[in-house]
User: Fold these one by one.
Assistant:
Number 1:
Amino acid sequence: MTASPEIITTVRDLRARVTGWRRAGETVGMVPTMGFLHDGHMSLVRNSRAQNDHTIVSIFVNPKQFDRASDLEAYPRDMDRDAAMLAAAGVDAIWSPEPDEMYPAGFATSVDVAGLTDCLCGATRSGHFAGVAVVVTKLLLQCLPDHAYFGRKDYQQLMVVRRMVADLNIPVEIRGINTVREPDGLAMSSRNWHLTETEREVAPQLFAILTDIAEVAGRGEDVRPTIDKGRKRLEHAGFGDVDYLEVRDAENLELSHRPKRPARAFAAVYLGKARLIDNVPVDTPG
Ligand code: AMP
C-alpha cells in the first residue's frame, strides 16, 4: 500500500520537513496547484517524481488571483480525492495552508511583473497576475525546492513566473511541462467540470481552431484571415465572448501576425459558465 502524503499546514512545519531533506543532500521538486487534480496536474507530479528525491504538491486556492468573489466560491475543491491521487502517485507531502497562514493580518506586499502581464489574460482579468506573482513568490520561498513545475497550458503564467524568478534571484529552477489533453483535444482543466454535456461536446473545437491558426502561421502566412474565420467558427459552435484569439511571440508575448521566431496561438473563450484558455505552439519556418 502507498503511504498517504503528510498534509502540512504551517510554514514552520514545511520548512522543517524540507530542511531535513536538503541537509541529507536530497533534492526537492514542487508542484503548485489549486487542487481538484486531473491528469494535467499529475503529469507535473510525474515529472517532479522522476527528477527529484522528494515531491511536494501545494494545494491552495489563492483568493488574490480571482477577480470575482463568485468565481472564487465556485472553484471546485475535494481534498480527500486529491490526497488519494497524490498518495497513489507517491508524493511525499501536500502543502495546504489556510488563507490566514498565507496572508496573515496586515499582509501588505505585492509583486508586479510589468510588460508580460499587460496582454492576453492580463488585459481582461485585472489583478490576476499580481495575485499569481505574489502567491508563487511565497510558495517558492516557503518551500525553496530545487525545481518547480508549471504547465504550458497556462503559458503566460509560466512566462511571468520565469521572469519573476530571474528578476528576484529566487534560487529555484522553473520547469515547463506540455499540456495534457483529453482524447478529443480538449485541454484538461479543473474548470471543465462547469461544462454541460452539450458544451463538453463542442469544447474541443477550441483546440481544433487554434491548431489551424498555428498551422497557417507555421507556413509563414498572415494569420489574420484564419483568426477571423476562427472567431466565426467559435460563434457558430456556440461559444460565447472571445477574450482573445491571437498569435504571439513565444518569449516576449508580442503580437505576431506572420511569426519568424518561435510563437504560439492563444485563446480565452467563454463556453457557458466556463472560461476556457488554451494555446498551441507554432512550428515557425526555419
Ligand atoms: P491550477 O490548479 O489550474 O492552478 O494548475 C496548476 C498547474 O497545473 C499549473 O502550472 C497549470 O499550468 C498546470 N496545468 C493545468 N492544466 C494542465 C494541463 N491540462 N496540462 C498540463 N499542465 C496543466
Number 2:
Amino acid sequence: MSRLRTLRHLAAAVPLVVLLASCGQSGPSPSPDSAEAEEPAPDPDAPGVHRTGPDRFTAIIYSTQGVYDPDEITVPAGSEVTFRLITDDEMIHGLAIEGTDVEISTSPPEDAEATHTFDQPGEYPFVCHIYCGGGHDIMRGKVVVE
Ligand code: CUA
C-alpha cells in the first residue's frame, strides 16, 4: 500500500518537474560570466558611436534646435556607419553629410536612419538641411574618418 502511494506521488511530481524545467528554459538565461554581469549594459540609445560589429557602427545623434548631440562622430576608415537621427524637441531636423548620399530628416516622433560606408579617411561635414527655426543655420557637425 505504501509502495503504491509512492508511485502515485512520483507520477504526480514528474509533470511538475518538466513544467518547471521548461519555464526555466524560456526565461532569460543568467550570464555564465559573473564578472561580465557586473558591467552595466551600454544604453543603445545613448548619444554617440556604438560598435555593432567588426567595422560596423551605429551613430546615435540627438537633434534640437541649433544643436546636434554629439556634433562630432569619429570612426576608423572602412567603417559602415548607420546614422540614427533622433529629434529631441519634436521638430523636423535634417542630417545631410557632405561627400556621401546621406540626407535624412526626422518625422517626429519617428527617427530617421541611413547607412554609409566611409572608405576614405578625412572629414565629412554635416548640416541640418531642413529649416527648423532660429538655430538652423548653426546646426552642423562632422564625421571624422581616421
Ligand atoms: Cu535643425 Cu534645421
